[in-house]
Amino acid sequence: KQEVTQIPAALSVPEGENLVLNCSFTDSAIYNLQWFRQDPGKGLTSLLLIQSSQREQTSGRLNASLDKSSGRSTLYIAASQPGDSATYLCAVGASGNKLTFGGGTRVLVKP
Amino acid sequence: DARVTQTPRHKVTEMGQEVTMRCQPILGHNTVFWYRQTMMQGLELLAYFRNRAPLDDSGMPKDRFSAEMPDATLATLKIQPSEPRDSAVYFCASGFYRDFLGDTIYFGEGSWLTVV
Q1: Predicted local distance difference test score (pLDDT) of residue B99
Q2: What distance in Å separates the CA atoms of residue B30 and residue B32, rounded to the nearest whole number?
Q3: Is the CB of A100 less than 8 angstroms away from the CB of B101?
Q4: Residue A22 bridge partners (DSSP)
Q5: What is the interface size between A and B, counted as CB pairs within 8 Å?
Q6: pLDDT per position in chain A (111 positions), as tens?
Q7: SS3 label, residue B31
Q8: Is the Cβ pair B31, A96 closer than 8 Å?
Q9: B84 to chain A, closest Cα gap in Å
Q10: Do B56 and A96 touch (CB under 8 A)?
Q11: A102: left (phi over 0), alpha (psi -120 to 50) or beta
Q12: HSE-up of B42 (CA within 13 Å, CB side)?
């Protein structure tokens, strides 16, 4: 059974600092990995999708890497802003597009 | 701007009552998911459909939960009878799947259920 872990559970950084969020998974036989953002009281917003054949994806200040062999993905957010404060979840995609979620990392960017 | 639409957004009900949550997936998506989010368990997959056919509902308590897709524009999740432990946020999500490749999954805003 796939298990997805995100450490730390919470992170606080000053504005302008780069954010590094970690995600690890136990079964490397994945189809893809997706990073989401969740604001309080809201649904999940997809940030980046990395297919299993890819090593990384970039969108603006966001960059996500994937290392299947070690069971790890990292989300980098450059030059953090207070608006980046949210919970970030990674989800590993298996057969049939089913996603297994990590517990999330709650990020606070202080002005 | 295509989005997954869920109703109701909030629901407070008494224990024992029936609860029905509805979801309109994004047009053209062939896969629909129901997830439940709680503080203790995080996000759990309850059930999912491909081309309206149920593929997996192993995450759902079978005795009280049921999920259906009467047509391509509507998915429903029903709880009967509801219990306080069902209090959670229920998310519907949709995506397009083909040839062993999964596409981005899009989530609705969720149905916030409180059973008292």
Answers
A1: 66
A2: 7
A3: no
A4: A74
A5: 59
A6: 899 999 999 999 999 999 999 999 999 989 899 999 999 988 999 999 999 999 999 999 999 999 999 999 999 999 999 999 999 999 998 876 788 999 999 999 999
A7: strand
A8: yes
A9: 20
A10: yes
A11: beta
A12: 18
